Amino acid sequence: MRRGQPLYQKPSISTRAFREKHPDTAKSYNSLASNLNAQGKYAEARPLFQKALDLRIELLGEKHPDSALCYNNLAVNLSAQGKHPKPRIASLSACVV
């Protein structure tokens, strides 16, 4: 592990404690992605945001506030990379407000 890197490089503690398909595991993926995003590591963050979103939709449903937050995070991440989010992501992320 490089100096200054977070202790949680992947949400392995959550996956061991709760298994892969658990809301807390999705939360861990989202937290790690947010950390990477804040460091400007957008490309590394994107698949983790997507994984968090996929888990939350599967476990909580598409209309759950936590799923909406993940849509928003993914849209912000794509925008930071100069990519335009798909219309579905953009419209659903607008519901977060």
pLDDT below 50 for ≥5 consecutive residues: which ranges?
none
The description of the largest β-sheet is: none
Total number of helical segments?
Answer: 5
Structural class: mainly alpha
Helix content: 55-70%
Q: Rg from C-alpha positions? A: 13 Å
Distance between the termini: 37 Å
**N-to-C SSE string, H for helix and E for strand:** HHHHH
Structural summary, described in words:
The chain is mostly helical and 97 residues long. It has a single domain, classed as Serine Threonine Protein Phosphatase 5, Tetratricopeptide repeat, CATH 1.25.40. It is 68% helix and 0% strand. Helix 3 (42-60) runs antiparallel to helix 4. It is globular, with a radius of gyration of 13 Å. The mean pLDDT is 79.
Q: Would you kindly provide a brief summary of this structure?
A:
By secondary structure, the protein is mostly helical. The protein is built from five helices and no strands.
Please outline the helices and strands.
Elements: H1 12-18, H2 23-38, H3 42-60, H4 65-80, H5 87-94
List keywords for this structure.
mainly alpha; 5 helices; 97 residues; Serine Threonine Protein Phosphatase 5, Tetratricopeptide repeat
